[in-house]
């Protein structure tokens, strides 16, 4: 039923997927982590993740309405958003560089970026 | 019924099934929250149409499914996501189906390729919506991995449906209209 072409195609898809996930898991922050908020592709605000030991909240005016982002204990989440599916809220907390929260209907993207990013191999060298 | 009418009726039925799956799917929440993306379970019907009537009919079924699905559920964003996913995955499955007919690949691989391309198209359009191309590198690996179980599921479903249809429609006079594959 299966030929070798089947196996080649399946292995390519799975290895691309696992490689991509592995790459994202191993992005280790070298510098300071920043929370980058953008609306409709335009940068809205950049907040350092580290000075959020208090309880920082930002209300972002998106395309449909307000998206409220909370930054606490070096983590970020979306508290409320003017979108129908609330996927951005269900995403929960993010805390590592490369992770992102996306509210597609409201065109709001919250992502954590780092000053410098290095692979984990950098440490083992 | 003439052959053309029979085909028309069966295609209409397939579109109806696809719309139902599409509507139910829009209420499912994917465990990994990917913005706006769907699993593409309605690909079962697209694949079935491809097996029964060929590429052009399956394209009609998948495009009509997203159009009618847009009228029932969803907004402009989810419509553009599902339309791009449907068109691209049908095109890829149509190409892969040629390889299947040459017995180079299995129907499950056709289905997995369809699911993968469905997800690729969706995440590319989603990244255009928010103008953040970082979205592709972040979500594509997860979506590709998700495409394998979805593709296997849709492929198996289409395979068994095809067998059942061939077995039961023999009694009526419409079998001659079905394509032999």
Describe what this molecule looks like in 3D:
The complex is a heterodimer of chains A (125) and B (181). In chain A, a hairpin with a 2-residue loop joins strand 2 (33-39) and strand 3 (42-48). The termini of chain A are far apart. Chain A has one domain (28-124): N-utilization substance G protein NusG, insert domain (mini-chromosome maintenance (MCM) complex, domain 2), CATH 2.60.320.10. In chain A, strands 3-2-8-7 form a four-stranded antiparallel sheet. Chain A has a three-stranded antiparallel sheet with strand order 4-5-6, with no helix packed on it. In chain A, strands 1-9 form a two-stranded antiparallel sheet. Chain A is α+β, with helices and mostly antiparallel strands and 125 residues long. The longest helix of chain A has 22 residues, at 4-25. Chain A has helices spanning 4-25, 87-90, 121-124, and strands at residues 28-29, 33-39, 42-48, 55-61, 66-72, 75-81, 100-103, 108-114, 117-118. The radius of gyration of chain A is 18 Å and the shape is globular. By secondary structure, chain B is mainly alpha-helical. Chain B has one domain (3-163): Arp2/3 complex 21 kDa subunit ARPC3. Chain B is built from six helices and no strands. In chain B, helix 1 (3-25) packs antiparallel against helix 2, helix 2 runs antiparallel to helix 3 (55-72) and helix 4 runs antiparallel to helix 5 (107-130). Chain B is globular.
